[in-house]
Amino acid sequence: MMEPSINLLDSFIDHWKGITNYYIETTDESRPVKQTDIPWRLKQMLDILVYEEKQQEVEETGACMEYLLQHKILETLCTLGKAQYPPGMSQQVLVFFSKVLAQIQKPVLHLINVHRPIQKLIRLCGLPNSNTEKEEAQFMFFVCSRVKKDPYVLNYILETAKDGNPQRSSSVSEDSTEESFSEVSSPASSPSPSTPSSPPQNSSQPDIIDILTQLMKSQKSRVALRAMESVMLLTSIAQEDTAKLLAEETPLCALLSQRLCELYCTIPTTLHPADLHIIHQQWLTGIVQPQLLQMSEAGVLVHTALLSCTVRHIHSSALLQELVHFLLGNDTHHEQQTDTPPHTHLLRYHLIEHCDHISDEISITTLRMFEELLKRPDRNILNSLVLRNLEGRSYRLPGSGEDRPGAECDALEESDELEEDPFFTDSEFSGSESLLSLSRDERRSSTRTQIAETVNSFLCLVPQEAKTTQHVQGAGYDTYVHDALKSLKECTAVSLEWGWPDNPKPIDAHSSSVHFYEGHFLKVLFDRASRILEQPYELNLQVTSVLSRLAVFPHPHLHEYLLDPYINLSPGARSLFSTLVRVIGELMQRIQHIPNFTQRLILVRRQLMGLEEETLVDHATLLKGVIVLEEFCKELAAIAFVKLPMGDQEHLAAFSP
């Protein structure tokens, strides 16, 4: 990229003239394009366009983009690519067009001097014996990506008038691009390129679906896969008018039905109806499960990533239910700490164990898979992983809290005692980190007391000398409130039909003999959280992301166990808050042995934010862990804040997106 002081337009014109001069001066027509400076000049032109766009206001068109449009540069490149002059030029043109579509953010496909050459370049794709299938598939993918982003431009790609009726153009011939090469220095005759046009229809030409159909038949698997991904982008467009256009003006429906027929015809006629379910299970247990349980770490990694993608893209409730049953089983009883296969579900056990794998990559990928599971609308996921172990609330000491008369006063007394703790001094609440500041009288009378105390408890959990928020602009707790509110709305909408109680189940006073076990999944997550000062930064981010996802669900037991710092835990039990308190205790001891701790911490934070150049810093793993810990506490505080009782929703008004 050139220096900003250089005139961008002059540089852009110089590179374009360098390309056009090649055709004027060259005498060797057989010289491959890669042996010329054309690829380099095209890259420079692209870089200039991208840089210029970043410097412009939203509604402005930069001078270089205006020049490209006025001089029909895309038209000219399309012509040169069609002519394959110099040899290999079509590949360079496809790459340039793909990168323009991928990197230029402003809508451009509605402009005549953009969509017209793109239409023509589309028609050059999918031809028999093509040597540029890879570039064609990539170009088509980015065209479909822009259509997915701005569905209205499909009219222009399909050359369909806005009223849906086909039109023929009498003013633009197929060979009009030949003229544009001679118009490089005389744009005055060009139509205005910055205004949208009503696209014409040329029904004799193959459309985008025809081209994708041909690419899907490629012998190169990656080309065929890319073409299928492009079709998926088009079929996932939600706008009704665009979907209607695809259905009525393209052979998309025929393509999909043909593919379904092909798959249907592959079903063996000897198959017994009762065997259909068994065959589906054979794929899961016969192929997927062995790949996830194999000894090769590389194999486990790639198949776990594939499983995560599968979970993310499943939309069928029946298929999701089948997959959840395969991954997690159907156990509903409380887990025991001694449960191991065959006394527990084999795959579930090993997948959870993989969250604490010796390979950090496998741990991160498996945690990501569980996070995807927690986003799916199936109540059995949470029941299997967490809720069945919290059903009896045996994590709480019987007879404590709201189960006794005068519980509200007890809760206040508990909070008063905690405020004397070094981690909960009054000075911690006086700064900008306090979300909810209430006087003592207000706290005694307010229905928000418990959540107010919870929010402040998480915010001041990290000691002052280990905080960096006040030293970095834009790093306050409020950055998490919007995301927390959005996640809460998503989780609430998903769980509405699951019949969750509004209030915690009363504790049985005679259940003191029940030993509480949080379950395999939470045990591994808490174990990982307890090692936050020793683990890689990326792993810590994924662990805290899964815990945050769990905390945002509106189940009263899950909320109490993960977000209430004041519950009296039963003997041997631990909660998320108690786990974090132990981490803070360890941190306070280790801080004493690190000179200039706060300064080092601020430096690492600035490096992570891209404000400082990456350099080697002693104790980097611990310092990054402290930063994740601080951010995690702010995120938990924001989650608790947005889960205020519905009667107090006015306090969220200032934070609503």
TrEMBL record:
InterPro entries: FHIP, FHIP_C, FHIP_KELAA_motif. Residues 518-610 form the FHF complex subunit HOOK-interacting protein C-terminal domain. This is FHF complex subunit HOOK-interacting protein C-terminal domain-containing protein. Belongs to the FHIP family. It comes from the Eukaryota. Residues 182-192 have a biased composition (Low complexity). Residues 164-206, 396-417 are annotated as: Disordered. It holds the Pfam family RAI16-like.
